[in-house]
C-alpha cells in the first residue's frame, strides 16, 4: 500500500526507502523492522540532549494534563513567561551593547526568521523611515522555506519555482579565506545605502554547505552595522543551543544582535517552538497607544503551552547540568577522528565548529542535483546511520549524548564512503 504522506525535501518518484521509526532514545532511532540507526544529524539539527530526554518528556506529560493550548493574543501562561525570562537571562551579552530584552514566540525557524524580518521593517516603518526596507544577506545563506525566509536565502533549484514571489535583497560575498576584506568592504558600502537590516548565520552557514568564518569577522560585521545604524539580525536557529561550543554562536564574538531568531533545540528538540528575541528599541518602536503600530503577526499555536513546558525543561537542563562540558568532550572526540579522516585521499576541507564537523568528498559531479547525496544517504543507511550529506559535503551534528563508539561508527562509515565513492568518482 502506498502512503498518502508527502515528505519534505523528498523526491518520491525516485522510490528511495523511507525508514519507519517507532521509538528513539539518546542518539538512537529504532525502526519498525527491528534495526536501529545512529542519528548523526540530530534529526535535522534539533535534538540536543538526546531523543526522549526524561526531564523534557516528563515536563511535556505534566503540562499536557494541565493546560495544553491558549490563545496568546492578550492572554499568557506560566511556561511562556518562564521561558521568556530564561531566554533573556541566557541570551548573549556584551559591555556597551543593548541587551536582548523581549521575546516573541512562533513555531519554527522559518517563522522566527519571518518575524525577525517583519520586526526590522516594522521598526523603520514606525520610526517614519519606511524607505529603509532593503535587507542585506550573506551569500550562500539559508534561513528557511517560507517566502520571506527564502527571499533572504541563496537562490537555487530549491526555490526556483517561487522566484517571482521572492523580494530583492542586497547580497554580501561570503567571507571565505582570502575574501574577508572584500566581504567587509562590500558590507560597509551597502550599509551606507541605509538598508533596514543585515541577516547572518553566525560563524557557520548550515544548509549552504557548513561554510565557516571566524568570530573576528562576525564581530566586524556587527560593528559595521552598528556604525551605520543598520539592524543586525543573527539567525541562531541552527547555531544556538550549544552547536558551536557556546550556548549561542554570537557569544564567541561578543556580539549582541538587535534581533535573534532561535528554534530547533529550544525544546531540546522535542516540540516545535521558536522565539525571536529583540532589544528594547525594536519593542519600543511598536509600543504606543496607537493600535496601527502594534506588531501584526500571529499564528494559532503561538507559545503553545506544552511546547513552552518542553522549552522550560530544556532551559533547566542548561542551567543545572554541565551541557557545555558534554559538548566539549563530544567536540574533542570529533576533532580527533576528523583529523585522522583528513588524511584520506578522497576528502578535502575538513572543518569543525563546536560539535559540528564537515568534510568534502572530492567528486566530479557534486551539484545539488547530482546523484551523490542520495547515493551517500543510502550507503550510510545500509550501515545503520542517519546522515544526510549536502551535495558532496558530509557533516556530523550528533546529539550531545552520542558516545565515542557511536562516533567511531560514524567516522568509519565516512572513511568507507571515501574508499567507495572516491574510487568510483
Ligand atoms: N535558519 C537556519 C539558519 C536554519 O538552518 C534553518 C533550518 O535548518 C531555518 C532557519 C529554518 O528552520 P525550520 O526548518 O525550523 O523552519
Compose a concise summary of this entry.
This protein is an alpha/beta fold.
Describe the structure.
With 425 residues, the protein is of the alpha/beta class. It folds into 2 domains: 142 residues, Aspartate Aminotransferase, domain 1; 254 residues, Aspartate Aminotransferase, domain 2 (3-Layer(aba) Sandwich), CATH 3.40.640.10. It is 35% helix and 16% strand. The protein contains 12 helices and 16 strands. The strands form 5 sheets. Strands 1-2-3-15 form a 4-stranded mixed beta sheet. The chain has a 4-stranded parallel beta sheet with strand order 6-5-7-10, with helices on both faces. Helix 2 runs antiparallel to helix 9, helix 6 packs parallel to helix 7 and helix 11 packs across helix 12. The radius of gyration is 21 Å and the shape is globular. The protein starts with 20 loop residues before the first strand and ends with a helix. The site of pyridoxal-5'-phosphate has 15 residues, from helix 4.
Topology record:
Blueprint: E1 21-25, E2 28-31, E3 36-39, H1 42-45, H2 54-64, H3 78-90, E4 100-106, H4 109-126, E5 135-138, H5 147-151, E6 170-172, H6 180-191, E7 197-200, E8 204-205, E9 211-212, H7 215-227, E10 231-234, E11 259-262, E12 274-279, H8 280-286, H9 305-320, H10 323-341, E13 347-353, E14 356-361, H11 372-382, E15 385-386, E16 393-396, H12 404-424
Parallel strand pairs: 3-15, 5-6, 5-7, 7-10
Antiparallel strand pairs: 1-2, 2-3, 4-12, 8-9, 11-12, 13-14, 14-16
Amino acid at each position: 500500500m502506498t502512503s498518502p504522506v508527502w515528505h519534505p525535501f523528498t523526491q518520491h518518484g525516485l522510490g528511495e526507502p523511507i525508514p519507519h521509526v517507532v521509538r528513539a532514545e539518546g542518539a538512537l532511532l529504532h525502526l519498525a523492522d527491528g534495526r536501529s540507526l545512529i542519528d548523526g544529524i540530530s534529526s535535522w539539527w534539533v535534538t540536543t540532549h538526546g531523543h526522549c530526554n526524561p526531564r523534557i518528556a516528563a515536563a511535556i506529560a505534566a503540562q499536557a494534563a494541565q493546560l495544553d493550548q491558549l490563545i496568546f493574543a492578550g492572554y499568557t501562561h506560566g511556561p511562556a513567561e518562564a521561558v521568556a525570562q530564561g531566554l533573556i537571562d541566557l541570551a548573549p551579552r556584551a559591555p556597551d551593547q543593548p541587551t536582548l530584552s523581549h521575546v516573541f514566540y512562533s513555531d519554527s525557524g522559518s517563522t522566527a526568521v519571518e518575524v525577525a524580518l517583519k520586526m526590522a521593517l516594522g521598526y523603520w516603518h514606525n520610526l517614519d523611515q519606511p524607505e529603509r526596507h532593503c535587507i542585506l544577506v550573506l551569500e550562500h545563506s539559508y534561513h528557511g522555506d517560507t517566502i520571506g525566509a527564502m527571499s533572504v536565502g541563496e537562490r537555487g533549484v530549491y526555490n526556483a519555482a517561487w522566484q517571482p514571489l521572492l523580494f530583492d535583497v542586497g547580497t554580501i560575498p561570503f567571507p571565505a579565506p582570502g575574501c574577508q576584506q572584500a566581504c567587509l568592504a562590500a558590507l560597509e558600502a551597502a550599509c551606507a545605502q541605509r538598508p533596514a537590516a543585515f541577516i547572518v548565520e553566525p560563524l557557520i552557514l548550515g544548509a549552504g554547505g557548513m561554510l565557516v568564518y571566524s568570530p573576528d569577522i562576525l564581530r566586524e560585521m556587527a560593528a559595521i552595522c552598528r556604525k551605520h545604524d543598520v539592524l543586525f539580525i543573527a539567525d541562531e536557529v541552527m547555531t544556538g543551543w550549544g552547536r558551536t561550543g557556546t550556548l549561542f554562536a554570537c557569544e564567541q564574538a561578543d556580539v549582541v544582535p538587535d534581533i535573534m531568531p532561535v528554534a530547533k533545540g529550544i525544546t531540546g528538540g522535542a516540540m516545535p517552538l521558536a522565539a525571536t528575541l529583540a532589544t528594547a528599541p525594536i519593542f519600543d518602536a511598536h509600543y504606543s497607544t496607537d493600535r496601527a503600530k502594534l506588531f501584526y503577526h500571529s499564528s494559532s499555536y503561538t507559545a503553545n503551552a506544552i511546547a513552552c513546558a518542553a522549552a522550560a525543561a530544556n532551559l533547566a537542563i542548561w542551567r543545572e547540568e554541565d551541557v557545555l562540558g558534554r559538548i566539549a568532550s563530544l567536540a574533542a572526540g570529533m576533532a580527533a577522528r576528523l583529523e585522522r579522516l583528513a588524511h584520506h585521499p578522497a576528502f578535502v576541507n575538513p572543518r569543525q565548529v563546536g560539535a559540528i564537523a564537515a568534510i568534502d568528498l572530492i567528486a566530479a559531479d557534486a551539484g545539488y542535483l547530482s546523484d551523490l547525496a542520495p547515493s551517500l544517504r543510502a550507503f550510510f543507511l545500509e550501515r545503520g546511520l542517519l546522515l544526510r550529506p549536502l551535495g558532496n559535503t558530509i557533516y556530523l551534528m550528533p546529539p550531545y549524548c552520542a558516545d565515542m563508539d557511536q562516533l567511531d561508527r560514524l567516522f568509519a562509515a565516512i572513511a568507507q564512503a571515501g574508499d567507495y565513492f572516491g574510487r568510483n568518482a
